[in-house]
Design goal:
homodimer; 202 residues; alpha+beta; two-stranded antiparallel sheet; 5 helices; 35% helix; globular
Chain lengths: 202, 202
Amino acid sequence: MHIKEAGIGEGISEVIVTTKSASGEPNAAPIGIITITNEDENENKYFVKLYKGSKTLSNVQETNKLAANVTDDTVLFVKAAFEPLAESQFSLFYGFPVLKEANSWILFDCAFSEKKAESGNFLFQLTPIAVKTNRKEVKAINRGLNAVIEAAIIATRYAIMENEQDRAEREKLMALYARIVEKCGGRREKEALEILQEKNKL
Amino acid sequence: MHIKEAGIGEGISEVIVTTKSASGEPNAAPIGIITITNEDENENKYFVKLYKGSKTLSNVQETNKLAANVTDDTVLFVKAAFEPLAESQFSLFYGFPVLKEANSWILFDCAFSEKKAESGNFLFQLTPIAVKTNRKEVKAINRGLNAVIEAAIIATRYAIMENEQDRAEREKLMALYARIVEKCGGRREKEALEILQEKNKL
């Protein structure tokens, strides 16, 4: 199954992962899909690292499935990182919750691969079982878009680690990324930054 | 003329700008196209800031034209930043040099707008005169791709400013971006980083 055409490329692809609980409740969270490249692209291997205590992990343990939603909507990334998405933002793909507005959906089977001893995080190997591309486009690189993603990662990591030592460094990087968004971003990136800054204050 | 569909969106679009001299010699350099958004997208205004002493500036002064080449090929960005591209990488679009491999081309008329008193840099207003989309795709966000662009910007700015005070800060950021490329990038991003690190040593 060719999932490169659906946007999952080499290295780590930042997507919004949707899952559902055994009782069918949907969840969305920004997560990286890890592609281990093989000479023959049909033999690429896909993995995902899931944090212990996360809703995504417990859902995957219950259903053994997740969907990767490929999008470059920074507002969606930031919202999914910090709050439950509204039910109206979900659609169904082979009966599995996905995000309506995503550019593509890749539904994966998840097989437990490894539990990291130090962190308690879980590694799952992913096998694509269905793919749909909704929208192709051409878009120039926007540094503001990238900066929102970096800022969101810093903000969510802080919430997990609470390491006071790194606080000054974190604030400096957040300020750098905010300046890049202000200078280079479009309206959507500026909106995402505002949400992020609100969350970061709490 | 709708150039949003060709990838020039809100904020600053990072593209490779191709130009030619009066005698027809092509040049390529990574440059940001600035979009000033209007409620009615047909009335958006486009600008570009060109550095004094740059080949792009003298070419635009000679021919009053430039082409924006939309691509996310980081190797192309890094090469265009530091060295002349091979003639074989150019093609012609309405007789104007563009990059064969770009996802889209937008040919602009350039009208002198302003000379910045302090920097001596020039601002030109751009009017699109021809557009071609060669390839649409869907691609997940890759932090490695973004990190190469940020690292390239830092490296080229240093070459221009030579401010020793910022050196430690610059090296720290370069190391951060290199770690992101190593962790998240694909082969193309890692190749771009290697070129960048070679150039950065000189």
